[in-house]
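User: quick one, sequence for these tokens?
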């Protein structure tokens, strides 16, 4: 396979005019006050929690109660209901996926990320041959679902590079997801045609003022452009959209509410699309940032269960950021997809294991060990459940 990718810049077709959003979550978001939502959550009583737990269908007011400090006394009841709903909807299946980092080059300054342009690290973007070496390793241990991740550097790892990488590997995987810089509708349409199934885009925090403090420079500093990215994804017809906040930047209860508000808006507006929620907690990295607000293991269990009680259909994902004992226990309570043996550096599996990671992982067990753990708990490990390009 040629290394032409790094000798001659890839060129896109002539760019189409930027499509104007037909709908936008911004309209809904701007009707809410962060401080008022936080006040509402912390004012919920145990009676509010019991009322929410007794209902067959719950709304966002119930969700506030389930996120509140008052819900702590009912965590066991929440966990039992969450586990029951998950088994009813998803059975005993657990989807396995692996992230594959293509590049750590980035033009943003983000206070919490090892790839931030202010960090003096060796930058690397994988060539065709290196991508295929990483692919060969992931295939050898069983993966058929892959998440491609890059920093946000449009000139180096923009749409031409991402589109090329997806085309290069699409015959090797039944399901390709991406976590890259926010793009335009036409660009998402192009990537969908090339083989992208899902796009993950995390708001990091829905607190506008705090968001600006953590993203002082780069395209990511535009709060509303990022906020409206799922709308562009929905209008581009992407099959699945992943949402989430980075817990630790701000109050996790309030950020969780706004994530749920965003989810409910999207489900109503783009009802043909599937959705997933992830629960990343701030992890150590080069030039690390200490969490502003601590989210304990118990808090994270509460949040996972609250999301499941709000929506029994949404997919809930847990990464290797979390420690092994926690993951072993929480998979029973509402999680539907899980990663294993993740590397958060470009070429981290076989090409360059020593390059700097985006953040430190906590669960370092092998894919086989995670698979065996799940099977011992009665799960059927799912490697493949959907294929877009079955005739390629």
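Assistant:
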């Amino acid at each position: 396979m040629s290394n032409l990718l790094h000798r001659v810049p890839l060129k896109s077709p002539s760019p189409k005019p930027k499509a104007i959003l037909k709908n936008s979550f911004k309209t809904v978001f701007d009707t809410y006050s962060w401080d008022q939502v936080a006040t509402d959550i912390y004012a919920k009583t145990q009676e509010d929690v019991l009322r929410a737990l007794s209902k067959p269908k719950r709304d966002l007011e119930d969700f506030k109660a389930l996120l509140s400090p008052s819900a702590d006394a009912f965590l066991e009841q929440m966990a039992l209901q969450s586990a029951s709903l998950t088994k009813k909807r998803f059975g005993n299946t657990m989807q396995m996926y692996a992230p594959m980092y293509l590049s750590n080059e980035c033009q943003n300054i983000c206070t919490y990320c090892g790839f931030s342009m202010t960090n003096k690290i060796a930058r690397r973007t994988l060539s065709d041959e290196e991508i295929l070496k990483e692919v060969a390793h992931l295939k050898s241990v069983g993966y058929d679902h892959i998440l491609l991740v890059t920093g946000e550097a449009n000139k180096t790892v923009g749409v031409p590079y991402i589109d090329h990488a997806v085309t290069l590997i699409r015959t090797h995987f039944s399901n390709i997801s991406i976590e890259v810089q926010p793009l335009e509708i036409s660009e998402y349409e192009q990537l969908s045609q090339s083989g992208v199934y899902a796009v993950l885009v995390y708001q990091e925090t829905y607190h506008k003022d705090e968001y600006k403090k953590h993203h002082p420079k780069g395209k990511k500093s535009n709060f509303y452009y990022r906020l409206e990215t799922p709308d562009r994804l929905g209008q581009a017809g992407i099959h699945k959209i992943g949402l989430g906040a980075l817990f630790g930047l701000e109050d996790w209860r309030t950020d969780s509410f706004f994530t749920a508000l965003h989810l409910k808006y999207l489900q109503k507006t783009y009802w043909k699309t599937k959705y997933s929620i992830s629960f990343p907690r701030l992890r150590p990295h080069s030039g690390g940032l200490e969490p502003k607000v601590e989210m304990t293991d118990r808090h994270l269990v509460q949040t996972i269960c609250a999301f499941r009680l709000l929506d029994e259909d949404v997919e809930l994902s847990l990464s290797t950021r979390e420690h092994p004992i926690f993951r072993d226990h929480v998979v029973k309570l509402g999680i539907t997809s899980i990663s294993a043996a993740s590397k958060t550096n470009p070429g981290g599996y076989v090409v360059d294991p020593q390059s700097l990671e985006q953040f430190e992982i906590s669960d370092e067990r092998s894919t086989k060990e995670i698979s065996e753990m799940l099977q011992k708990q009665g799960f059927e490990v799912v490697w493949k459940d959907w294929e877009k390009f079955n005739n390629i």
